[in-house]
Amino acid sequence: MCRRKSVLIAVAALLCNITTAAEKPNIIVIYTDDHGYSDMGCQGIQQDLVTPNIDALATGGVRMTSGYVTAPQCVPSRAGLLSGRSQNRFGVECNGESLDGFNAQHTIAERLKTAGYATGMTGKWHLGSAREIVSHGFDDVYYKNANRPGWANFNLDGSNREPGVENSGLYHLDANSAAACAFIRRHHAESFFFYCAYRAPHVPLDAPAKYLKRFPGPMPERRRQALAMISAMDDGIGSIVRTLREYDLEENTLIFFIGDNGAPLKIHKIDAPGGGPGWDGSLNEPLNGEKGMLSEGGIRVPFVVYWKDRFAGGQVFDQPVISLDVAATAVSLAGLPADPRLDGVNLVPHLTGRNPSPPHDALYWRWIAQAAIRAGKWKYLRGGAREYLYDLSNDSEEQHNLIKEHPQVAAQLGKQLNDWAAELQPPGLETRKMSEVWENYFDHYLDGKLIPMPAAISDRSRHGWQTRNGSSIVRNGALQVRSNGKNRHELFITMARLKLPTRMTAVVRLRTPKAGSGGIWWRESDQKEFESAEIATFNCPASAEMQEYKVDISAKKKVIHLRLLVPVEGADVESIEFRNSNGRTLRKWQFGK
Fold first, then answer.
1. SS3 579
2. Domain boundary residue, one of 446, 481, 516
3. 423 and 439 co-located in one domain
4. How many Cβ atoms from other residues are within 10 Å of residue 161's Cβ?
5. How many Cα neighbours within 13 Å face the side chain of 386?
6. Is the pLDDT confidence value at 486 over 60?
7. Are 210 and 352 contained in the same domain?
8. 321: Cβ contacts below 8 Å, ≥ 6 apart
9. Which domain holds residue 56?
10. Residue 2 placed within a domain
C-alpha cells in the first residue's frame, strides 16, 4: 500500500509539473531604438503618428507613464535589459567598452531555457558579433538591423537552415516582424521567449516609400522618416499579435513594449539631408533632454505591458518601473527560484492590483560622468560638479531645480546614490569627467543657456538672414529671435543683395510670446539707407501657434535689401515668402530646412 501511495504521489507530481509547464506564459519583449517618449499615439502628445497596433496594446493592457531604462545609450541599456542586472555592476558602462562583464551574465534567454522555454531573437543585437548570440541562450536567431545581409539560423517560413548569411532582401523592419511570426509558428506548441529588437527609428533613416507615403504634407524630412519607421514597426506588431491569435496564444502571452533610450535631438533637431548621424526625427516632449543624458528625456521611454485578460485594459500606471523588471518578471512566471542578484522586481502583482505598493523604493543610474536617483516624487541628478533636484510629481519636464529649497532631501538622496555607486564596477559616481558635449547638453536643457548652432549649419538653415540687436537660433523648425536687452525697439532680421519687384506681398509666419508690432522695412536700389517711409507694419497678438501675416509692398524701384522687424519680446519665425500680384511665389525662406 505504501509503495502504491508513493507511486500515486509521484504520478501526481509529474502531472502537476506537466500542467505547470503547459501553463507557463510565453514572453515577448519588443525593444525599439532611440524612440522618443512622446512617439506613441496612446501617449496623447503628438498628433502626426500612425501607431494603431501599439496603441491597442496600451488600450488592452498597461501604459507605464514612468517607465525607465538603465542607461541613455544603446549598449548599456541592452546589457541591463537582457541580464536583469544594472550593467554598471559588471563594467558595461557605455558603448565601446569591453563586453567581458556581459558575457559572464545569465541572460533572460539562458534562464528561461532551464525552465523548458524555446528562445529566439531578431533585429539589433549590439552586444558582440551575431555569431555569439546563440551563446547567450538564444537558440533561434534572425539577426538583421540594416538593409544589408544579416545572419540567421532559421528561415522566414519557419524551417531550419544552416547558420549563415541572411539574404531575404526584405526591408529590415519587415524582416524582423516576419522572423517573429515565423518563430511563433515554429514553437506555438511550447512555452517560448522572444526578443524583437527593431532598429527604429535609429539612424540611418531608411524607410521605404510604402511607409513614407503615409505621412504627406510639410514637415521636417527626418520627422517623416521617423514616423514611417515607427509605422513599419507598428505594422509588424500587428502581425505578431495576429499570429498569436492564429494559435490561440494571446491570452497566454505577456508582451513588453519598451524603448531603449530617449531620442537623440543634438539640441537643435537639424533636418539634415541623407538620414545619417544626427537627429533621428523622434521626439521626447514634454520631457527635458535627450539621448546621452540622465535627465528624463534620456531615460524615460515608451513602456507598455500587455497580457490579455490578466491585466485590466486601459490602465495608466504612474509608479516608476524599469527595464530591469522584465527579467525578474520572466523568472517568476517561468517558475524559477528568485535570484537575489537580479535588480528588478516581478511586476505582475503590481499590475494585477494584488500588491498596491510601488514596485521600487528607488531607482538608480550611473552613466559615465552622470548619476541619478529617483525615490518617489523626487529625483536627484548629478552631472560632473552640477547638482539638481526635481519634484517629478509637479515638474516632469525638469524645469525647476529645487536643490536650494530642499537641501536636506538632496543630501539624503545623494547619500543613497553614493551608497549604491560604491557597489558598482568600478565604484563611484563617475567613471570619466564631463565632456564638452555633455556640458553643452546640461547648459542647454537644465541651465537654460543658449547653445549656438554650429556656424556652417546655422548659416545654411538661416538661409543668409542675419540678426541685429539680438540673437537667433534655429530650433523646432523656426528661427527663434530674441533681444539682447539693448536697442529693444530695433530687433530685426535682415537680408541683402536681393532683386525683388516693386509690387509684391510679403507673407510671414511667426509666433510671439507677447503682443507687439512687426513690420517689413525695405531699401530700394537707388537708396543708400533705409528710409522711414519704406515700411509696412502689422500687429502681432500673443500666440502659442504660428500666425500668418500678409503685408503689401509698393516700392518705386527694385527692392534690394529687407528687414523683418519683430516684437521687442522676440518671435519665432517659421517662414518668409514674397508673392507677385498673381500669387506666384517669388522667393521663400523656410527656416530650419
1. strand
2. 446
3. yes
4. 12
5. 19
6. no
7. yes
8. 64, 66, 67, 68, 303, 347, 359, 360
9. 25-360
10. no
Residue 172 host element (H or E) = helix 172-186
Residue pair 433/277 in contact (Cβ under 8 Å)? The answer is: no
Paired residues of 481 in beta bridges: 472, 571
315: which strand partners?
A: 62
Q: What is the CATH number of the domain that holds 374?
A: 3.30.1120.10
> What is the SS3 assignment for 300?
strand
180 and 143 together in one domain: yes
Answer whether 570's CB lies under 8 Å from 450's CB: no
Give the separation between CA 295 and CA 72, rounded to whole angstroms.
9
Final residue belonging to a domain, choices 446, 481, 508: 446
CB 262 within 8 A of CB 300: yes
User: What's the full length of the chain, in residues?
Assistant: 593
pLDDT tens for residues 532-570?
A: 889 999 999 999 899 999 999 999 999 999 999 999 889
The answer to whether residues 283 and 318 belong to one domain is yes
- Is 94:368 a contact under the CB 8 Å cutoff? yes
Q: Write out the three cell numbers for 175.
A: 524582416
Q: Is 135 part of a structural domain of the chain?
A: yes
Number of domains in the chain: 3
The whole-number pLDDT of residue 529 equals 87
In a domain, 318, yes or no: yes
Instruction: Give CA–CA dist 199/173, Å, rounded.
Output: 7
Q: Is the model's pLDDT at 15 over the cut of 90? A: no
Q: Which amino acid is at 13?
A: A
**CB neighbourhood size of 395 (10 A):** 16
Of the two residues 176 and 593, the one the predictor is more confident about is 176
Query: Based on the domain organization, do 233 and 321 belong to the same domain?
Result: yes
- Which residue has better confidence, 462 or 315? 315
145 and 194 housed in the same domain: yes
CA diameter of the chain: 119
Instruction: Judge residue 237's burial from the number of C-beta atoms within 10 Å of its C-beta, 0-12 exposed, 13-18 middle, 19 or more buried.
Output: buried
21: pLDDT confidence band, cut at 50, 70 and 90? very low
Residue 17 lies in a domain: no
Q: What mean pLDDT is reported for the chain?
A: 92
Whether the CB-CB separation of 93 and 315 falls below 8 Å is answered with no
pLDDT at 178 > cutoff 60: yes
Q: Are residues 206 and 221 in the same domain?
A: yes
Determine if the pTM surpasses 0.90: no
pLDDT at 12 over 70: no
Residue 40: count other Cβ atoms within 10 Å of its Cβ.
26
Same domain, 324 and 466: no
Edge-first strand order for the sheet with 516-524 is 466-468, 492-495, 559-565, 516-524, 535-540
**Residue pLDDT, tens place only, 369-391:** 999 999 999 999 999 999 999 99
